[in-house]
């Protein structure tokens, strides 16, 4: 019976690793955030690499990127994350670059609540450069 329970727990843990969604951790600049717009997904063909989200709170906008477990399991942590809030035309605020192998990254506060914005997130590896943008919010 113990072997069956241990096997079931192992299967459940593996399923969580492969199918779990990204959950935002606390933001160092603001503890009252609300996600605005939909989540964008960084993809490598059909494989989801990371989630990109835009938040508002404390009078600012924030971008956020989180690399999924399944990507790290198959590709390791040989990547750098970047994120920012983009505004038209081709301008950005809160641009932030993470440390090599960092799994999640918050962009710096962007004073952009009065303009149309989208969050932009990048996963830059030694043999790939992948990115996604959220829908525009006005």
Please give the structural blueprint.
Layout (H helix, E strand, L loop, with lengths): L1 H18 L14 E11 L2 E11 L2 E8 L1 H7 L3 E9 L3 E7 L6 E3 L10 E9 L3 E5 L5
Antiparallel strand pairs: 1-2, 2-3, 3-6, 4-5, 4-7, 7-8
Structure explained in plain terms:
- It is built from two helices and eight strands, in the order H-E-E-E-H-E-E-E-E-E.
- The chain has 138 residues and is an alpha+beta fold.
- The chain has one domain: Immunoglobulin-like (Sandwich).
- It has a four-stranded antiparallel sheet.
- The protein is globular.
- The N and C termini lie far apart (57 Å).
- Residues 1-21 have low confidence and may be disordered.
What ranges have pLDDT less than 50 throughout 5 or more consecutive residues? 1-21
Q: What Rg do the Cα atoms give?
A: 17 Å
- The arrangement of helices and strands along the chain is HEEEHEEEEE
Alpha carbon gap, first and last residue: 57 Å
Main sheet: strands, sense, barrel: 4 strands, antiparallel
CATH fold annotation: Immunoglobulin-like
Number of helices: 2
What is the CATH architecture descriptor?
A: Sandwich
What's this, in brief?
By secondary structure, the chain is α+β, with helices and mostly antiparallel strands. It is built from 2 helices and 8 strands.
């Amino acid at each position: 019976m113990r072997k069956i329970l241990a096997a079931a727990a192992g299967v459940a843990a593996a399923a969580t690793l492969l199918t779990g969604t990204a959950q935002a951790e606390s933001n160092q600049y603001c503890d009252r955030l609300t996600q605005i717009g939909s989540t964008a997904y960084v993809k490598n063909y059909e494989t989801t690499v990371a989630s990109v989200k835009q938040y508002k709170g404390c009078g600012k906008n924030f971008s956020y990127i989180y690399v999924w477990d399944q990507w790290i399991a198959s590709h390791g942590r040989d990547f750098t994350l970047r994120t920012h809030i983009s505004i038209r035309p081709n301008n950005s605020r809160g641009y932030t670059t993470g440390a090599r192998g960092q799994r999640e990254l918050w962009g710096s506060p962007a004073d952009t609540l009065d303009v149309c914005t989208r969050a932009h997130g990048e996963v830059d590896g030694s043999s790939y450069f992948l990115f996604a943008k959220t829908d525009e919010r006005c």
